[in-house]
Amino acid sequence: MATKIRLQRQGRKRRPLFHIVVADSRAPRDGKYIERLGLYNPNTNPASIDLNFERSLHWLQVGAQPSDTAKAILSYKGVLHKDFLLNGVKKGAFTAEQAEAKFEAWLAEKENKITSKVDSLTQARMAKAKADLEREAKMKEAMAAKVLAKNSPLAEEVAEATETEEVVAETEEVAAETEAQVESTETVETPEAEAPAAEEPATEAPAAEEETTPEA
User: Fold this and answer.
1) I need a labelling partner for 46 at 20 to 30 A (CA). Which of 86, 114, 160, 166 fits?
2) What is the model's pLDDT at position 145?
């Protein structure tokens, strides 16, 4: 019977959990399995892996084929590396003691890498939390200063002065418009004064003709 090491999905929607199982390669993904080897939780950072190292190594030794994701998990936990070293011992490449020393060195290096990653993630979270607190404190200070400035007597005087200036400006604008309207309505053409009639020249009375007395 061909066996596979693969993941079996559990958990709720958008929050998946995966069981690491050994199952018949012909069985459906979420069907029956032969043995459960561990749990994989991708919802944490870094992902949480709870794995039975010895049983996983055993199934690899007897020929179980891991899926791509299961292979990555087994490699991360060192199961594949230990299987490689044991196969080297079987072939006579090195002794069991040498294989164990090599594995211990690899395991220590892996632990250092994981610890460094966890520390960096922790520092990043702490820095983000500190930045969030500082930003919140600044926002609170700005709001308090704004409220204090709004409620201070000087602010009230400035507001009253501003309101008075606005009223005066509106009054001057209305007065200017009214004056312009009055000037436009009073502009009427004035008729020219009639020239006085020319006086006719006085007509002189004809001089009275003198009586001529005939000479005696």
Assistant:
1) 86
2) 82
